Amino acid sequence: MKLTKTLLATTALTVAAGASATAQEMADSMTLVSWGGAYQESQQKAYVEPYLANNPGVSATWDESSAEAVAKLRAMNEAGNVTWDLVDVVASDAMRLCDEGLAMELDHDEVLAAAPDGTDASDDFGDLIVSDCFVPQIVYSTTFGYRTDMVPEGTEPPSSICDVFDLETYPGKRSLQKRPIDNMEWALYCDGVAKDEIYDVLGTDEGVDRALAKLDTIKDQVVWWSAGAETPQLLADGEVFLGSTYNGRLFSAIAEQDQPIGMMWDMQSFDLDGWIVPAGLPEDRLARVMDFLKFATDTQRLADQAAYISYGPARESSAPLVGKHAELGIEMAPHMPTDPANATNVHIYDYEWWADNRDDLDAKFQAWLAQ
Amino acid sequence: MSDTSDTGPVLAADGTPLKRSLRRALRAQKMRALALIAPLLIFVLVAFIAPIADMLFRSVENQIVGNTLPMTVEELRDWDGEELPEETTFRALYFDLFLASEAKEHTKLGSRLNYEESGVSSLFRTTGRDVDDMGEVFQDALEEISPEFEEAQVWYDMMSGGEGADSNERLLSNQIGRLEQLESDIYSGDVGFVPGAAISDILPNTARAYSAFAAFVHFIDEDVVAEEDPWEAVYAALALDLEDPGTVTALATYDGPGADILRQAAAAELPPVDMQTAFIESNEDWSRVEYWEVIQTYSPPYTTGYFLNAVDMEKTTEGIALRDEDERIYGILFKRTMFMSMMITFSCIALGYPIAWILANLPARTANLLMILVLLPFWTSLLVRTSAWKVMLQQQGVINDVLVWLGLVADESRLVMINNQFGTIVAMTHILLPFMILPMYSVMQTIPPSYLRAAKSLGATPFTAFRRVYFPQSVPGIGAGSILVFILAIGYYITPEIVGGTTGTFISNRIAYHISTSLNWGLAAALGSILLAVVLILYWAYDKIVGIDNVKLGG
Amino acid sequence: MSVMTLTPIEKKPLSFALPVIGAAGAFAGLFVGTSHGSGLMGIVVGAVALMALGFVALQVLGLSMEKPVRWGIIALFTIAGVLLAGVPGFVLGVLFGWFFAFFIYWIGEGRYRANLAPYLTGGQVLWHYSFRVLCGAIFVFLITPILVVMPLSFNAENFFTFTPEMLRFDPAGYSLKHYEDFFTSSGWQQALRNSLAIAPVATLLSVSFGTLAAIGLSSEHVPFRRAIMAILISPMIVPLIISAAGMYFFYSRIGLQGTYMGVVLAHAALGIPFVIITVTATLVGFDRSLTRAAANMGADPVTTFFRVQMPLILPGVISGGLFAFITSFDEVVVVLFVGSANQQTLPWRMFTGLREQISPTILAVATILVAISIVLLATLEMLRRRSERLRGMSPG
Q1: What is A2-133+277-321's CATH number?
Q2: Which residues of chain B make contact with C292, given a CB cutoff of 8 A?
Q3: What does the domain layout of chain A look like in residue ranges?
Q4: What is the tens place of the pLDDT at every residue in B123-151?
Q5: Chain A residues with CB inside 8 Å of B119's CB?
Q6: Interchain CB distance below 8 Å, C394 and B29
Q7: Using DSSP, how many helices (H) and how many strands (E) does chain B show?
Q8: Which of A84, A213, B479, C209 is a good FRET partner for C185, with 20 to 30 A between their CA atoms?
């Protein structure tokens, strides 16, 4: 029996003229979905290029549609024609996709590589596996950057989240994301609500009013953004004094573009980003994508990604391997949101709570914005 | 060709009456014209009109509740909404929810109902995770009584009634039909299981639950029914059946496969079936009447809910009412969209009229060169023009820089011209201006300049001549341009998104938001339908006033 | 005062010319003044300086010295500009110098009346030129955003910002790297290829179906003409976001979402109104007796169409086709919904670029596209002139 298999494999090898036996069962192209920009570039360099080098004949296409991933996967599912193979989404979207059966449930220990010391993948990722469908890649945070040259003379640079609400000490425009998540929590926190009571307060109508009232105090000084590229541009223009955005964008503006921008890590809002595999892939594509997924989320690859962008690798075992920036040669560890010096006071947002209350709060938030 | 035969005969050349011959020719001409139009008409109907109609349909469609919870909806039909529904409703919900959670459809329903009442989403999600445990109580008890209840084959034989037994095809096809509704798919083929007629009579709930299980295993999991262990819901259904004293008597005389273990189970003490408690234990929100009201209110297959939401109203127990003040947004947005589209239209008229006039009155060669200046922005990417306006208008932007450099504005008090209505109006006026200029220009070209000269030589002042002679003739151009600009403005979404801030966004921005972020497609469709209705009314007016064929694009 | 002469160009009295020139100088001086602290000072200095210049040029040196005086004024302004504001001042100085040199003689010698009817009153002349200035301002409004984009595409930094280096005209502030990025990035090149694969096919579809239908519609005997026309024009009328969402749902159902065919069909539908409108407009001026004559001489309908009708309506067809092409080439909302990774077009990439990573590469692409637009517009203009010649009439 074993002999036949070996023989068959050999024949296949000769017939396929060089292609390996496994490659025959795997599709030779993948469509990866991500966010575009520097982040996608870091994935391309850290995961895709080495993978393609190991697997000649395979090609990868990027689709920059992560922002509409849930909507598009739903439509594809309705049509019964899923064209994506691997999708990069934020954790809350992954949970939603998993709930709706649009993403495949995975056994993390089985499909992912173990850490170099043999620790199971599920232990290595730990709590970051927030959903059975989700393979975490990075920890990022939404935090603030400010123009160092616009700090009023004789004042310390802003160091607390509540400085965002302090127009007297720090006059000037601010940019905030055009959504209730994070902003409502920050507002309540700065209105004197204890960190562990924020969601209890926000769950009541009075709490919502209180958060909006706090935001009202700075409303006419706020530029609302909806795309990640906006705050760095606004800061570069000097259009705003400080603004929230993803920490990697700020790093790139500061370190790569030499902009006079400083980081303010207080109450940074942690979030996760990672892969999901769409449900219902044909077998050959599934085999290919699983092969890629195992490779792209191993300890070394996750650490490699940190050489291109300042997001924390999701594996515990990757953290010690984080080295220097690939082009600038600066140490990356101090720029990670997870670095102990940066993570003294962090905000961890409650996915479950927002899943329930998002529709409602969003309606209120948008109505408040429109007024 | 001349056709001035005024005294011709009534017969055509071939002898047929001219009238008939003409009619035939006319019909042929009509057919020929229609044949030329048909391909395009069909194309537009399929590629464009059908999608629009399909989208409008989503604004009233609401089959998800009835498809996911058919038995619950049935039970709730006569519920008065005063007190918590009875145990039978909870039982129906249990079986509905179990199947739905196997098919992973319950969270979709949760998201759908969450649009109407916050919290339904997690209610369905958390309870969906617990339905297995709720049934496991009965599974454990039954397997305690007889280990044979653990065997997949035993269940299969028991429920199919053994070889040659009468079968209950209807029950099975009902369950397949249910699955088809749930999954929006069509299933055909042999499940490999048919419930026995006798056993279905004795154990109606069990037979139904097992048939649903069988259909699911076969069509969705693509496994063999006889080899799969039944769901916990089947055990719960059996426990429910055995609670009925009638079942026990019927079982006494039953001799099909598994009759002995069933009698054994009937004789033993099973945990009581109390789904109400089980659900409330899983999530105490099930004891809140509001959530049940939402399910009841939204159970019909068609709803006006999305449309009500789109006009800031909602269904309450007291009927239809306005939403709370802090949730009203669409009224504001519709009004704002109208107001700003009008502002944009007026500024386009103000800026477009002189340009159209000068283009129409300059020598052709100069006019054509200047026309390129009009068309160039028209053909430059919309995204680029919008970004350009951002660069120009922002506080550190080109215009402010120039004003500060000239000393007209102090550095500390730079003008705020973006992220507000002003920014949207300026950028959109720029983007839509060519749509105003081109129709005006084509109308003004047809006004002979001699009219104006004649008026003047008859003693009119230049202003009077313009007002009484030229302007009235150019009105059709203004009308054409205005309606075109207004209709296009009303539907814009990218430009307001980029330069509009919070006060300069349009209703289309919300539609886009609901389509790609909140996934409330029904509401997006309802908002879209209202917007479309407004546009169609304007379009109709446009057709009445100018006629659609009179739009000219400088060709 | 209306002067009825056969040669309306005549030297104006200094009592008219000098105040006008002085007023213009005061206006310009106002801006220079405000930027240096005192607006009033600027007005006075500007008015006095210009009146002095005007007096010297018109009265002392006279018409014979026009050329050297003009150069002198330009030089004077340039030097003043450099002294006041450095490099930008140099540019402005040259422009203002050129303008005032022209303006002094234009006013002083009465040349402004050259092309006007001799019976116009002074007020009317003033109105005539104010109106021209107003129109000029509107043209500036139309074109400035595009002009602003062009220098930014040479930005050495990765933001849409005029850096201080750029404003100083420092070569270090400029770079071609965004153009290089466009030509070397596989993503942009793929997007360009996709755009070029989608737009022409979509255009071909809308032009061929559209032209046939327009010919059909131009016959007077079509039943339900208005209703049909309404349906055919509707893609232009229905707000794009609604079309996009509708197509997204519907194409998903029939398996066209995310396919090349789907995007082409969607874009073809959007381009159809433009073809219908332009071709029907051309057909309005079409002389039907020509086809009858052709039929009379034995040509069959197909020959008549290609040999007689087509050459005459061709300009309309081409201009409709160009509109349809640009519609597809510049379309972002629908392709974002209906397309998938393999159909990413240029506007799609620009859109995600604006959203995810702002880079002036977008502006470089825009600049290239503007250049292409100019070529297309020039082609259109040439075709139009050809059509005029062919039809021997100007378009109605």
Answers
A1: 3.40.190.10
A2: 1
A3: 2-133+277-321, 140-271+340-370
A4: 998 898 899 899 999 999 999 998 999 99
A5: 356-357
A6: no
A7: 28, 2
A8: A84
